[in-house]
């Protein structure tokens, strides 16, 4: 039994070229009767419990560095510049995170520890930029408009710095997870900028969330189309972009349909949202990306709860029926994913661009 993850790791480490990996995969599939053991959404970042153990240690270590540098930074200012204290506190911790990544990401190739280090590195860089730029705008805090403008501009710069850090991390380590951080950072930058310097209604109304999510989803799909068999690292890049895109699209749709991201909905609004979510689920099946459905489970539950409450008495009974319906649907879909995919794919041609956009499901 072979695993496509083993082939990817061999290519990444230079043991095999991509051409050799493809030929070896074809040979092994032929020997096994064409049944590949690989899964397009295999989570490769957790090999064993040791990864969790090391990740816990790294978080504790960097937290210790952060407390040490914080003691030095805020102690050395003597009531002086908070921006200087923040830089002295956060930048050394970011540097330690980068240096540890050189070992755990480049040499050991441990993905879960690398993901934690990436998150800490980008967070510390973003917070440093936020602290420095925030101090320069203290004079604006004399009015509501000034506070709003300062918060938006500081948010843009902080998110932009985090995005730049994520780009640097990706270029150095090629860690797929860094694209998830990059996508969210760029989205946050856009939300902050449009809220202050553009049309805030586009943000509050959910339109911008749908647009940014759709653009992120389009980029993820374009990566998947270059790798229909999900045999290269591009599939991992696409996975994290799908994961960043789906919540923004779903949350934006909730805002557009009901005007509320988490509040109560009318029966008609819940029905419209549920229809939109079912369409999104069909797209997920066609794309062979469970992450899209998983990211929208909360919205499914909220819409179902509204619909169920109209025919069931009592909040407890409503919750029970909602959980049974939603849980049963997820279990059935997960168990019969391949069958459901084949049914959806029967609606599309099996050649040309459709074959690359919607990967075929083996019989």
Q: What can be said about the biggest beta sheet?
A: none
Q: Note the run of SSEs as H and E.
A: HHHHHHHHHHHHHHHH
Percent range of helical residues:
over 70%
- The poorly predicted ranges are 32-38
Secondary-structure content class: mainly alpha
- The shape is globular
Q: What is the mean predicted local confidence, pLDDT?
A: 84
Tally of helical segments: 16
Characterization of the model:
By secondary structure, this protein is mainly alpha-helical. Helix content is about 75%, strand content about 0%. The protein is globular. About 0% of the residues have low confidence.
Task: Describe the structure concisely.
This protein has 363 residues and is mostly helical.
Give the helix/strand layout.
Elements (H helix, E strand, L loop, with lengths): L3 H9 L5 H14 L17 H29 L4 H26 L3 H25 L8 H30 L3 H21 L2 H5 L2 H19 L7 H26 L8 H21 L2 H5 L2 H13 L5 H21 L1 H9 L7 H5 L6
Helix pairs in contact: 1-2, 3-4, 3-5, 4-5, 5-6, 6-7, 7-10, 9-10, 10-11, 11-13, 13-14
Descriptive labels:
single chain; globular; mainly alpha; 363 residues; 16 helices
């Amino acid at each position: 039994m072979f695993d496509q993850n083993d082939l990817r790791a061999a290519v990444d480490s230079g043991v095999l070229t991509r051409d050799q990996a493809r030929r070896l995969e074809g040979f092994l599939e032929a020997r096994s009767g064409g049944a590949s053991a690989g899964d397009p959404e295999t989570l490769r970042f957790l090999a064993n419990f040791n990864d969790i153990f090391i990740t816990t240690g790294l978080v504790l270590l960097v937290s210790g560095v952060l407390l040490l540098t914080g003691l030095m930074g805020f102690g050395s200012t003597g009531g002086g510049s908070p921006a200087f204290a923040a830089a002295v506190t956060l930048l050394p911790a970011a540097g330690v995170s980068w240096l540890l990544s050189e070992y755990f990401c480049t040499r050991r190739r441990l993905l879960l520890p690398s993901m934690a280090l990436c998150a800490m590195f980008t967070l510390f860089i973003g917070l440093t930029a936020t602290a420095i730029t925030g101090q320069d705008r203290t004079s604006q805090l004399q009015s509501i408009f000034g506070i709003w403008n300062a918060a938006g501009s500081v948010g843009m710069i902080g998110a932009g710095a985090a995005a730049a850090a994520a780009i640097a991390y990706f270029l150095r380590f090629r860690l797929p997870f860094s694209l998830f951080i990059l996508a969210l950072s760029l989205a946050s930058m856009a939300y902050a900028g449009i809220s202050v310097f553009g049309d805030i209604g586009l943000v509050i109304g959910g339109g911008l969330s749908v647009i940014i999510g759709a653009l992120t989803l389009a980029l993820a799909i374009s990566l998947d189309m270059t790798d229909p068999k999900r045999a290269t690292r591009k599939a991992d890049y696409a996975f994290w972009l799908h994961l960043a895109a789906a919540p923004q699209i779903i949350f934006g749709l909730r805002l557009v349909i009901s005007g509320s991201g988490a509040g109560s909905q009318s029966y008609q609004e819940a029905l419209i949202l549920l229809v939109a979510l079912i369409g999104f689920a069909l797209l997920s099946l066609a794309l062979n990306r469970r992450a899209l459905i998983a990211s929208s489970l909360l919205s499914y539950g909220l819409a179902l709860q509204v619909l169920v409450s109209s025919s069931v008495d009592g909040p407890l009974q409503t919750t029970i029926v909602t959980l049974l319906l939603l849980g049963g649907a997820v279990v059935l879909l997960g168990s019969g994913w391949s069958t459901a995919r084949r049914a959806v794919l029967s609606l599309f041609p099996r050649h040309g661009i459709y074959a690359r956009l919607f990967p075929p499901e083996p019989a």
